[in-house]
Write a structure and sequence with these properties.
Blueprint lengths: L12 H8 L16 E6 L8 E2 L7 E4 L8 E3 L2 E7 L3 E8 L3 E9 L5 E6 L2 E9 L9 E7 L5 E7 L10 E2 L10 E2 L20 E6 L2 E6 L2 E6 L2 E7 H4 L7 E2 L9 E5 L5 E5 L5 E11 L6 E5 L2 E6 L2 E5 L7 E7 L2 E6 L2 E6 L16 E2 L1 E5 L5 E5 L2 E9 L7
Parallel strand pairs: 2-28
Antiparallel strand pairs: 1-7, 3-31, 4-5, 5-6, 6-7, 8-9, 9-10, 10-11, 12-13, 14-15, 15-16, 16-17, 18-19, 19-20, 20-21, 21-22, 22-23, 23-24, 25-26, 26-27, 29-30, 30-31
Length: about 400
């Protein structure tokens, strides 16, 4: 939680004396070691007796890393943080449930991302040595996601991480004031060769692919070379309204934008193919590699066979929570529905007759392990198999 400045100080000489003496009112970050510390310990199995677990993780042992920020991952490593009173404790945990490294940051430095320098996944953490809010004197540093070894930084950035990816901007600044860092070097990407008189609007950085709105086009580039582009006018997209969708993922192979009214286009990251033009929700099933979109026409599953619109009733209040193991998890109000991603029919996602908090798949790997959200808890289904008790 953010520290508050002390109020009610006496005016005049008393205030002057405090300023001259250099007194701190608790808004300066604690003096702690910011360098990642190697851990290398296996987390203990979590108590899940009060949870309803998805059948897709039934044989797997779950651990609880203590995270309360959204989880990001690359390969077999997951990253998030535990929010304490005075600081954040970031930690990287692999699919075996082993805590690889941890690093401390001021409590307000909740902005982080996982990106890549070629085939090397990187964790980018923000920091501030003058403010626990992480609004002033913000810096960014990148670390090897597996080892915690520093790759670059600290680099001065204009404000907190805005994302998706390594995109930074002052609080409430317009999109044309954002700065995107090159994941390979930490250097700001040069805008001098692109854009119109209004400048380049950086929409996101996706594992080294930088997406800009510039010169009437949506342009995706990597290492300074254009990979794909789309005309804004031809697709009816307003450059001033086009932004990254809230909570947009960076490492799942697709790019989701908001066209200004809560829904918008979904692109294949590699090819730029337009997968859907009005999605309000999107998820990728890491097991089947299918991309699932929720839009005005309903639910569409996009895979190697093409696009399939599922015969599923989707009122406006329905949210696409997750796609995993060939199943779709939809929420309508306080109810969760599970559907077969091939037929659209209702499916059995949990054991019948159980009670407790429902755990929902979150970030998964192609091997079928990953994180679950259960109320305010985040758990990781590891590749460790639950030992048979021998009962029954």
């Amino acid at each position: 939680m953010r520290n508050r400045r002390m109020s009610g100080l006496a005016a005049g000489a008393a205030t002057l004396a405090l300023v001259l003496s250099g007194c701190s009112f608790g808004n300066t970050p604690e003096d702690f070691d910011r360098n990642p510390e190697t851990v290398g310990t296996d987390l203990k199995a979590a108590d899940t007796s009060d949870l309803q677990l998805p059948l897709i993780v039934e044989p797997l042992e779950l651990v609880e890393p203590g995270w309360d920020l959204p989880v990001q991952s690359a390969g077999s490593v997951f990253l998030s943080a535990d929010s304490g009173e005075e600081s954040l404790m970031y930690s990287a945990v692999d699919t075996k449930g082993r805590q690889l490294w941890q690093a401390e940051r001021p409590s307000g430095c909740t902005g982080f991302t996982v990106t890549a320098d070629g085939d090397t996944p990187l964790a980018v953490l923000t920091d501030s040595e003058s403010s626990t809010d992480c609004d002033d004197d913000v810096t960014a540093s990148a670390y090897d996601l597996k080892s915690g070894k520093k790759a670059w930084g600290p680099v001065d950035v204009p404000g907190p991480l805005r994302g998706p990816g390594a995109v930074f901007a002052p609080e409430d600044a317009p999109a044309d004031e954002t700065v995107v860092l090159d994941p390979a070097t930490g250097e700001p990407v040069d805008d001098s060769d692109g854009g119109n008189a209004g400048g380049v609007r950086h929409l996101g950085e996706y594992q080294g692919l930088i997406l800009d709105s510039t010169g009437g086009k949506l342009v995706a580039s990597e290492e300074g070379t254009t990979v794909w582009e789309h005309s804004l006018a031809d697709n009816g997209w307003d450059a001033e309204k086009l932004t990254a969708a809230a909570g947009a993922a960076t490492g799942e192979g697709f790019i989701h934008l908001d066209a200004g009214d809560g829904d918008g286009p979904v692109f294949d990251r590699e090819t730029g193919d337009l997968l859907d033009d009005d999605a309000c929700g999107v998820a990728r099933d890491a097991n089947t590699q299918a991309v699932v979109t929720l839009g005005t026409s309903g639910i569409t599953v996009i895979d190697d066979l093409g696009k399939t619109e599922l015969p599923v009733s989707v009122p406006q209040s329905v949210r696409l929570e997750a796609a995993a193991g060939g199943l779709l998890y939809l929420r309508e109000g306080g109810k969760l529905r599970v559907h077969n991603a091939t037929t659209g029919s209702l499916a059995r996602g949990y054991k019948a007759g159980e009670s407790g908090i429902v755990a929902i798949p979150d970030v998964f790997t192609p091997a079928g392990v990953g994180t679950l959200r259960a109320g305010d808890r985040t758990l990781l289904a590891t590749d460790r198999v639950v030992e048979d008790s021998g009962e029954g």
